[in-house]
Amino acid sequence: MAVAGIDARQIETFNKEYSKSPKSFTLGLEARTIWEGRGLGNLGKVGPWKLGTNPIKNPARDFSVQLGSWREVGDALGVEGAADRIEPVETALMALCSCVTEAITLNCARTGVNLEGLEVRANLDVDPGPITGAKEPVDWEKSLRSVKLDVTAQGKLSKKEQQMVEEGATRSPVHHIFSRALDVRTSFRYA
Q: DSSP letters along 93-119, please?
């Protein structure tokens, strides 16, 4: 196995089955949030989801995440009982990093690249003016223009193998979503 824990032959088998009926493998994903009734807190939930047209019901996938803002921001905005929560933009950045990690890992496994380690980090500067009402939403066009994505891949990787790492990042659906909305500036390091 080029990548520990991933059977490249199974990826080939999956891709053959997928080629016969791509719509059968479409992932119908859903996420929602429920406002907790006061302040900025909300509860994020995932699911249900579909594989093709088949709904998947799996009680073990009933994931919930408490979302909101930073206590300091809540205090500055006058939110009573402000508490530290994962902020939605941080969650989006974490999803970007995780999806790029998975896409690179799968691409390395599929193409026989011996990946020894991988870290993906995203940075984004956010002007809070449009969300608080100090600026108009159109100002996002000026202030929210790019996200910096740093990928550090470890292993003795040839130039061709490095190309497979870089190609892997572009196979991430979350990377694609971000790159359609923002200029994603990705840098790669090899250690």
A: HHHHHHHHHHHHHHHHHHHT----EEE
Q: What is the spatial distance between Cα 159 and Cα 137, in angstroms, rounded to a whole number?
A: 43
Q: How far apart are CA 19 and CA 187, in angstroms?
A: 32
- Same structural domain, 98 and 171: yes
Residue 118: strand pairing partners: 153
The predicted model scores a pTM of 0.91
Cβ density class 165-176: b for 16+ within 10 Å, e for less: beebbebbebbe
Asked which of 42, 59, 86 is the last residue of a domain, the reply is 86
Q: Which tens digit of pLDDT belongs to each residue from 132-148?
A: 999 999 999 988 989 99
- Tell me the Ramachandran region of residue 11: left when phi exceeds 0, alpha when psi lies from -120 to 50, beta otherwise: alpha
Helix or strand or coil: residue 50?
strand
- SS3 of 52, please? coil
pLDDT digits (tens, 9 = 90+) for 28-59: 999 999 999 989 999 999 988 999 999 998 88
